[in-house]
């Protein structure tokens, strides 16, 4: 005979088990207890109850391509290994022709989402961002364009000398479909001042989220963990996102992002362990009762931890992901292509004992016919040139 839920979670977590059974909102104290308990299996069991209540065994993934259009950035965040700096990656900014070229690389692959983010590059004019979105939409009609963190949106508005509302409206007209997460990392004034003081603060980030929601844009949320933040700051981050979601209802997914210290100014920190990754995912699932989906980003978590995370609260494994350049493995600057083939994505999910479900960016399950329609029309091949 197997263990009962009470035996799995133990005396310490039984009060939270009762709340989970009643679908009752968890408190800050509950979040801190879940963060500190030795019983990770118990935490995972609780998160899995919620995960299976919402999604059964389904695990979603998307066919996506990432385009990181520039790595020139004037924010100098201490946790970032992506921006151009001495001894790090060489600076680049993609022309629109290069963006088309990147899209052309995968012209025969059905893709439903293009995910674009970049550094805060003061050389790029307002028109560049609008043209960037138009370029993608023209090259791959029907694709969902998820682009620009809140920090980029504020920079775009500054470049155009327009309000954030106007910049968002113009981008929507050009073809923007949703905003990715990122840009705030952890909603904490202390961490903001220490690690990313040149970027938006928490209230400014929330204002962009509210402006996006008012215009009908959906948004994704993230939490970068495993650097200098405390357990309390993590829980407070989640509670602030939960309150914002109560207000706007526009967030689709929460993605906890495992910090990779290699090649950052924080390289002396030991990054999160698999235990940390699974716990972060489980706590997101349990605290964010008004978020439909919790994603395990396999590039950051690795494939084996992503498989385990599907039993710790995650119902989404992200996507096939072509050319993601934000996180470099072990400080290597050479091969940046990070791709799971379609078959390997299915295998990863099936081997974990879950059911793979192909989705679009808004979590509609998609058919083979729709996928075929997302193959790119023929373009004239273009030479690649570094700017
Ligand atoms: Fe720039 Fe973004 Fe890196 Fe910060 S995290 S330095 S804003 S690219």
How many beta strands in the DSSP annotation?
10
Count of discrete domains: 2
Biggest sheet overview: 4 strands, parallel
Give the ordered list of helices and strands: HHHEEHEHEHHEHHEHEHEHHEHEH
Task: Give the spatial strand order of the biggest sheet.
Answer: 5-6-7-8
Straight-line distance between termini: 65 Å
- Shape descriptor: globular
What portion of the residues fall into strands of 2 or more residues? 5-15%
The tally of helices reads 15
Model description:
The chain folds into two domains: 5-43, no CATH class; 59-328 and 335-375, Aldolase class I (TIM Barrel, Alpha-Beta Barrel). The chain is built from 15 helices and ten strands. The protein has helices at residues 5-21, 28-36, 40-55, 96-105, 126-139, 150-160, 164-174, 189-195, 202-214, 231-248, 274-287, 298-301, 303-309, 342-351, 368-373, and strands at residues 58-62, 64-67, 113-116, 144-147, 178-179, 218-225, 251-258, 293-294, 316-319, 355-358. The strands form three sheets. It has a four-stranded parallel beta sheet. Strand 3 (113-116), helix 5 (126-139) and strand 4 form a beta-alpha-beta unit. The termini are far apart. The model is unreliable at 328-337 and 379-387 (pLDDT under 50). The site of iron/sulfur cluster has 12 residues, from loops. Residues 73, 75-77, 80, 82-83, 119-120, 151, 196, 199 line the site of iron/sulfur cluster.
């Amino acid at each position: 005979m197997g263990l009962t839920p009470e035996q799995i979670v133990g005396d310490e977590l039984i009060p939270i088990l009762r709340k989970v059974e009643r679908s009752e909102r968890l408190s800050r104290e509950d979040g801190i207890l879940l963060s500190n308990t030795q019983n990770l299996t118990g935490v995972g069991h609780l998160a899995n109850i919620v995960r299976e209540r919402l999604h059964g065994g389904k695990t979603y993934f998307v066919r996506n391509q990432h385009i990181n259009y520039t790595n020139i950035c004037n924010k100098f965040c201490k946790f970032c290994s992506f921006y151009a700096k001495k001894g790090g990656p060489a600076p680049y900014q993609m022309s629109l022709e290069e963006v088309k070229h990147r899209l052309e690389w995968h012209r025969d692959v059905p893709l439903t989402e293009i995910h674009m983010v970049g550094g805060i590059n003061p050389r790029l004019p307002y028109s560049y961002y609008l043209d960037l979105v138009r370029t993608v939409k023209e090259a791959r009609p029907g694709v969902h364009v998820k682009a620009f963190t809140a920090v980029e949106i504020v920079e775009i508005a500054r470049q155009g000398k327009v309000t954030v509302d106007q910049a968002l409206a113009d981008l929507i007209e050009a073809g923007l479909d949703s905003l990715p997460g990122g840009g705030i990392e952890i909603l904490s004034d202390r961490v903001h001042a220490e690690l990313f003081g040149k970027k938006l603060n928490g209230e400014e980030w929330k204002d962009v989220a509210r402006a996006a929601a008012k215009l009908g844009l959906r948004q994704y949320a993230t939490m970068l963990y495993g650097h200098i933040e405390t357990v309390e700051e993590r829980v407070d981050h989640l509670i602030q996102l939960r309150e914002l979601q109560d207000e706007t209802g526009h967030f689709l997914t929460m993605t906890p992002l495992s910090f990779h210290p290699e090649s950052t100014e924080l390289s002396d920190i030991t990054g999160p362990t698999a235990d940390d990754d699974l716990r972060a995912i489980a706590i997101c699932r349990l605290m964010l009762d008004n978020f439909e989906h919790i994603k395990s980003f396999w590039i950051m978590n690795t494939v084996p931890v992503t498989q385990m995370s599907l039993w710790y609260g995650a119902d989404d494994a992200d996507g096939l992901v072509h050319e993601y350049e934000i996180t470099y493995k072990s400080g290597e600057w050479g091969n940046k292509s990070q791709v799971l083939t379609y078959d390997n994505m299915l295998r990863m999910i099936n081997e974990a004992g879950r059911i793979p479900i192909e989705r679009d960016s808004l979590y509609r399950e998609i058919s083979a016919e729709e996928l075929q329609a997302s193959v790119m029309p023929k373009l004239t091949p273009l030479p690649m040139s570094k700017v």
